[in-house]
Amino acid sequence: MKKAFLKKLAFFLVLCAMFPIKADATQQKIDKVQEGINDLKQQEEEAQQKADQLTKEAGGLEGDLAEFNNRLAQAVAELNQTEEQLKVTRQNLKDTRKALKKASRKENRQYEAMKKRIRFLYEINQEGIIEVLLGAENFADFLNKTEYFANIHQYDRDMLDEYRQTKEEIASKKRELDAHEDSLAALLAQQEGKKQELDDLVADTSLHLKAARQQLADAQSNVAKYKQEIERQKAYEAELEAEKAKEDAKRLEEIRRQEEENKRNQIRREQNKVQSQNNGGKDQNPPAVKGDASDVSLLAALIQCEAGGESYEGKLAVGSVVINRVNSSHFPNTVAGVIYQGGQFSPVASGRFASVLAQGANSSCTSAAQEVLGGNITTSCLYFRRDDGSIPGMVIGNHVFY
After folding, report:
1. Is the pTM of this model over 0.70?
2. What is the mean pLDDT of the chain?
């Protein structure tokens, strides 16, 4: 038995030297591509977040620009209203100046008339007036002449007062309108400044909006580039997976050939055992594979990594593949050895398996691991892969087992 075991071990070492090197290299390439895809997805997500943020900022800037435009329209309306006020005021000033000019001519006429009256009164002097009054024919005539002189004097005073009032009123109106015109001119200048300020704000906002749109276009372009690169990497990964599948199929064919040879050897061993028993020898059965708590944790973590989103049947099938390898002479004879064998399980190489193992697998994957270790082997396959239609085998969920 020891000699047969040594032969089997020697054949296993030779087989591993023939096939796994290239398989491991291909798996390493697959792992590296998967890592690259994960990095690209992270960068794509960051670029998308940046694009979303820029989209919000651009929307806000467009809202600000619309508000600025509304304020500008309101300012222009106020300016137009001010222009109308200025137009009315200027017309009032024009009319007032005409009235002032007319009053000035009236003043000149009144002034000339008063000068003549003053000259007349000066020429006849006080004695002349008295002489005229004394030359009255009777008392009634005297009163009439006295009243006449008094009316003339009062008329002159009234005309002078009217002239002065008119002149003061016109001057006051002119000052009032001039002040109003100055006020409106200042308002116009203020509104022009406000309009310029709003123009500057609109120009600045438009500039920022243009820059934001350019940044958004760049970010969206980056997202598209990441998507394109991810698709290229996925295509390359699919090529590597196909290459790995061919390598696995070639190795599986050799394993099956060797298994047939082992069966024949097993038959000979059984015959020899029967003969040994007939000769009084003892029955020597090979030791059974037993799973402890560590094996349950390891197998459950691997099932969660490889089939966490699959049905319970799919979880059992993945666990069965591991146990089939443990029971095969062409793989390590422990659960840990099979799981950590180089180039076999991508989650182990990527580090995801270690994270799940540290946290502990969920109850469903743990139950599946316990069932498989308890003997519920649902498939005799040694390999499984994500089903893309290129590999014949038993399909369960998203995996093909072969």
Report:
1. no
2. 78
Rounded CA-CA distance 352/366 in Å is: 17
Q: Is the dihedral of CA 138, 141, 146, 149 positive or negative?
A: negative
Three-state secondary structure of the chain: CHHHHHHHHHHHHHHHHHCHHHHHHHHHHHHHHHHHHHHHHHHHHHHHHHHHHHHHHHHHHHHHHHHHHHHHHHHHHHHHHHHHHHHHHHHHHHHHHHHHHHHHHHHHHHHHHHHHHHHHHHHHHHHHHHHHHHCCCCHHHHHHHHHHHHHHHHHHHHHHHHHHHHHHHHHHHHHHHHHHHHHHHHHHHHHHHHHHHHHHHHHHHHHHHHHHHHHHHHHHHHHHHHHHHHHHHHHHHHHHHHHHHHHHHHHHHHHHHHHHHHHHHHHHHHHHHHHHHHCCCCCCCCCCCCCCHHHHHHHHHHHHHHHCCCCHHHHHHHHHHHHHHHHCCCCCCCHHHHHCCCCCCHHHHHCHHHHHHHHCCCHHHHHHHHHHHCCCCCCCCCCEEECCCCCCCEEECCEEEC
Q: What is the pLDDT of residues 37-70, one digit of tens each?
A: 888 888 888 888 887 887 777 667 667 667 777 8
Percent of the chain residues past pLDDT 90, beyond the cut? 22
Confidence of residue 359 (pLDDT cuts 50, 70, 90): very high
| Amino acid 124: pLDDT | 61
Neighbours of 399 (CB within 10 A): 19
Assigned token pair, 338: 């099979």
In this prediction, residue 258 carries a pLDDT of 62
Given a contact cutoff of 8 angstroms between Cβ atoms, the answer to whether 76 and 195 are in contact is yes
Residue 128 to residues 116, 152, 153, 301: CA-CA distances in angstroms?
17, 16, 16, 143
Q: CA nearest 15: which of 254, 245, 246?
A: 254
Burial 186-221 (b: 16+ CB within 10 A, else e): ebbeebeebbeebeebbeebeeebeebbebbeebbe
Name which residue leads in pLDDT, 288 or 153. Answer: 153
Phi, psi dihedrals of residue 380, rounded to the nearest 5°: -95, 5
